[in-house]
Amino acid sequence: KIKTLTPSEVRARKGGTPLVVLTAYATPTAQMMDAHCDIVLVGDSVGMVVHGLPDTLGVTMEMMCLHGAAVKRGLEQAMMVVDMPFGSYEESPEQAFRSAARLMRETGAAAVKLEGGVSMEETIRFLTSRSIPVMAHVGLTPQAINTLGGYAVQGRGEDRDRVMADAKAVEDAGAFSVVLEKVPESLANEITDAVSIPTIGIGASAQCDGQVLVVDDMLGLFTAFKPKFAKRYATLGVDGEKAIAKYAQEVRDRSFPAPEHVFADEVKKK
Length: 270
Ligand code: KIV
Ligand code: NA
Fold this sequence. Notes:
Layout: H1 7-12, E1 19-23, H2 27-33, E2 39-42, H3 46-49, H4 61-73, E3 79-83, H5 93-107, E4 111-115, H6 121-128, E5 134-139, H7 145-148, H8 160-173, E6 177-181, H9 185-194, E7 199-202, E8 210-213, H10 215-218, H11 236-252
Parallel strand pairs: 1-2, 1-8, 2-3, 3-4, 4-5, 5-6, 6-7, 7-8
Bound molecules: 3-methyl-2-oxobutanoic acid and sodium ion.
Sodium ion is lined by residues 43-45, 83.
């Protein structure tokens, strides 16, 4: 068993071997990635890829607690981080503390992740100074789609300084790492050079200090849409449907169950 990274060890990986991060929402997938990933993120993307919600805004604390606890049971070595869901932290640092403490207590997570830069600076400082390690998330922040107006690339042109300021704000507030989502490659590189904490890219740059993907995207299980950055390493959705179609046909033509799947009256004596 390899030792689980701590948030300060993650921070110390700045500029080193890239951090390998994937999302997980259930025990079996967590088991699959445990030996290969530095960090497993219980993302609020669970709302879209597992619960069929149109966006991440409907995700609740209860959902994050249940999925987080399930993922934790599948991990022996990877560090686990849990997303704070929309509405559980924006109101005040105190509200954020209560929610983060509950997430950590009920899931065993080592840290929480929340979306926002400058606007969350005070909250991140409040949490980190009270023993809650925070992974930040800037650039495209999906919980803000209604104010951002969609899932467009963030930080192009005039908007570049805003995303840079967000990254510097979370570093200054004490975040141990920061996810950069859907920003121009050159901006991701500039931020990675400018901040002392690891940047974890998704739709960002190969020069980031780590990469993260949504597991259902990379396995080809989530097919409602495919973001440009979501490289498919497998086609489990297509493969799974083929398997189900075969099962349906075998049930209908009575070739399943076969003799090896059924039980005799007596156990055969050897
Ligand atoms: O919810 C999620 O899956 C995430 C990652 C894409 C970073 O926040
Ligand atoms: Na998320």
